[in-house]
Input
Amino acid sequence: MPKRPKKLWLMKSEPSTYSIEDLARDRQEPWEGVRNYQARNYMREMSKGDLIIFYHSSTTPPGAAGVARVSCEAYPDPTQFDEKSPYFDPKSKKEDPRWSLVDVEFVEKFAQLIPLQTLKDDPALKGMLVTQKGSRLSVQPVEQKHFQRVLKMAGATTKLA
DNA sequence: GCCAACGTTGGC
DNA sequence: GCCAACGTTGGC
Output
């Protein structure tokens, strides 16, 4: 198998639903419930080993909370077929599943959350999707220079390969 | 709680 | 295929 460079991502979660602390406890978690095609397509591009900035949204303040890692290739999200799940999708067919997910494993929790405003104020992060107004996408690609910069701001121990 | 920015749905 | 209505995300 040829090695390919790791891709880098940012994934948002409301900490009241699932936080970096929850992931630290669980070690690994299926990223259920993404119901946006663009976000789904990005998950389908992911490979085991890709690194993720774990972002806390809809909280005060929102911001980058830690680092996670993709732990498997995308597979069908089982909650789309579960009538009792809030993520149930009656239009999705078993033989042609509409929604995918990846499993995500804990890597590191930042000593301190890096607030969105701090990310926005840093000229080195100009162009990073999450700092742009109206960016609602819950799964986004991150450029290496931006990922590296966030790690540095956080004093993170994680190193890019 | 408000509302801007989008994505989705469905009538036509 | 257009687009109005509606729903959701997520910062503030």
Observations:
- Residues 36-38, 133-136 of chain A lie near DNA strand B (CB under 10 Å from a C1').
- Chain A has one domain: 8-154.
- Residues 144-154 of chain A form the longest helix (11 residues).
- Residues 8-154 of chain A form a domain with the ph1033 like fold fold (CATH 3.10.590.10).
